[in-house]
Design a protein that fits this description.
Shape of chain B: globular
Mean pLDDT of chain A: 95
Distance between the termini of chain A: 22 Å
Number of strands of chain B: 10
Order of helices and strands of chain B: HEEEEEHEEEEE
Number of helices of chain A: 4
CATH topology of chain B: STM4215-like
Number of helices of chain B: 2
Structural class of chain A: mainly beta
Shape of chain A: globular
Radius of gyration of chain B: 17 Å
Number of domains of chain B: 1
Oligomer: heterodimer
Largest interface: A-B, 16 and 16 residues
Radius of gyration of chain A: 23 Å
Low-confidence stretches of chain B: none
Structural class of chain B: alpha+beta
Helix content of chain A: under 10%
Helix content of chain B: 10-25%
Chain lengths: 328, 168
């Protein structure tokens, strides 16, 4: 039997970094854990559930601020060992696209949907009093799904292709983290949000864009992050997104960054818990004067998790999947 | 290095043919996809229009690391006179079409492919897959130039490959 020979290992050559998002259960403090042993080779454009593709990022920079100090003994003192006295890691990057998730993560704080207002609403910096929500049809026609919202023919006539919609539950006095699927804000008291029935839809990340309307169903361009709407959810049209410098909420997400090597190898960086560490920021990329492309800039601090294999406190998992038949 | 050159050419040929099967040319009486490597053809001063003509120019070898990395520059020239039925007034459109085809073919992911050894390949004999990949950067497009009534452009692309043990 002749043995297959391996090729000498080489340093990965990569073109760019792709980012993926998954929610952290803020109430329970439980992140989404990515298992590179099971899913490390997923196709770049179709990450395993519940991971969501954030597209390419640039200026991806990891910074380790973990402090290693010498442990000295004797006279004169001699270093006899080392100890980690601080564990810290940060990540900074620039998103290549302005999607809802990207804008939210780079916002530094809570991100607000600019819900369509009622006629004559008083002006407000993050949007005035919202119009009444539209209920999802129940018990008649097609059931709503993650990509199709059945509102009935009459209500559907009030929407147009291209409209943006937020889909979530009514605010009925919930306290703590709100937002279906992804914790989008923290409510300290009902009075703080004025008992606004639309408040959860005002902050939710469960949004979509209408690409077709047929038979009373609003077809969305991509699946809602929270999946098929639950009973009681309603729809609020929106015109865009808003974040606020100085707001108190800290965004937190489970992050995965993938670098595909030219030889078929792959490097993965998994931060189970990343919290924003700066306010909303943009970076101008000069094209030809006076044109500038504006990228969303984000900076995040890693928070710890316990590795189930040995209980170690960990901020980031770096995995390397070699190309086929490489020397290791 | 020849394996990398052959692999890049045949990959680009396949992608261009898939994008626009109608872009063909006739070389020595044979209809082929509209792309050729000039050093592989009979020398001629005639300019083949409405086809992509590849030339390998600069070469650099980085011997740091267990496998030397070869960087080759591929110069891709293309020209059009426009359609005679249109009096050549569509030459800008035709050049733009070739620009788009080339950009798409070179920038479609993945911008990497398995290196193949075609030296022994023939009808019924498949090329041999090597152990590493060929990969390339995004193309850089030069200015469009008018030569008489002809419109032409040159794009360059950096092609990279690792030189495997025993490979010439």
């Amino acid at each position: 039997m002749s043995a297959t020979t391996t090729v000498a290992a080489v340093a990965p050559v990569t073109r760019r970094v792709r980012a993926y998002f998954a929610p952290v259960n803020r109430s329970a403090g439980v992140p989404t854990v990515f298992d590179p042993a099971q899913f490390g080779r997923f196709p770049a454009q179709t990450p395993p559930a519940p991971w969501i593709d954030l597209g390419w990022v640039s200026k991806f920079a990891r910074k380790c601020s973990t402090r290693v100090d010498p442990l000295r003994a004797g006279a004169p003192a001699v270093t006899v060992g080392q100890v980690r006295s601080e564990i810290e890691a940060t990540v900074s990057l620039e998103f290549e696209v302005w999607g809802k998730l990207q804008v939210t993560l780079a916002s530094g704080s809570q991100q607000t949907n600019l819900l369509t207002t009622v006629a004559g609403a008083m002006p407000n910096g993050s949007g005035g009093v919202a119009a009444a929500p539209i209920p999802l049809a129940v018990g008649s026609g097609l059931a709503s799904t993650a990509t199709g919202l059945n509102v009935g023919a009459t209500a559907a006539a009030g929407f147009s292709v291209g409209n943006l919609v937020a889909v979530d539950v009514d605010y009925t006095g919930q306290l703590g983290y709100v937002g279906t699927s992804v914790s989008a804000a923290y409510v300290q008291s009902a009075s703080a949000v004025g008992g606004d029935v639309n408040y959860v839809r005002r902050v939710t990340l469960n949004v979509g864009v209408i690409v077709a309307i047929a038979g009373g169903v609003l077809e969305l361009g991509s699946a809602l992050p929270a999946g098929a709407p639950a009973i009681g959810m309603q729809i609020s049209p929106l015109v865009g997104f808003c974040d606020r410098e100085g707001a108190s909420f800290f965004q937190e997400w489970s992050a995965l960054f993938v670098m595909d090597g030219a030889q078929g190898d792959r490097v993965l960086f998994h931060y189970p818990r990343l919290q924003t560490m700066q306010g909303s920021a943009e970076v101008e990329d000069a094209l030809t004067a006076p044109l500038e492309r504006i990228r969303l800039a984000g900076a995040f601090r890693a928070l710890p998790v316990k590795d189930g294999n040995d209980g170690e406190t960990v901020l980031c998992f770096r995995s390397y999947l070699p190309a086929a038949l490489r020397g290791i | 290095m020849q394996n990398a050159k052959d692999t890049f050419y045949l990959t680009l040929r396949g992608r261009l043919a898939a994008l626009n099967p109608a872009r063909t040319t006739v070389v020595r009486g044979v209809v082929r996809p509209g792309i050729l490597v000039e050093e592989n053809e009979l020398p001629t001063i005639a300019v083949l229009v409405d086809a992509f003509r590849l030339n390998w120019t600069a070469l650099r070898v980085d011997s740091v690391g267990p496998l030397p990395m070869v960087t080759m520059e591929c110069s891709i020239r293309y020209a059009t006179d426009g359609e005679s039925g249109n009096g050549g007034m569509d030459r800008g459109r035709l050049l733009a079409g070739m620009d788009a085809e080339l950009a798409s073919a070179l920038c479609i992911p993945p911008q990497t492919t398995a290196k193949m050894n075609y030296s022994g390949a023939s009808a019924g004999v498949a090329p041999i897959a090597m152990g590493t990949n060929v990969f390339w950067a995004d193309p850089i497009f030069g200015d469009a130039a008018m030569v008489g009534e002809r419109l032409e452009r040159t794009a360059t692309v950096q092609v990279f490959a690792h030189q495997e043990a025993g490979e010439l």
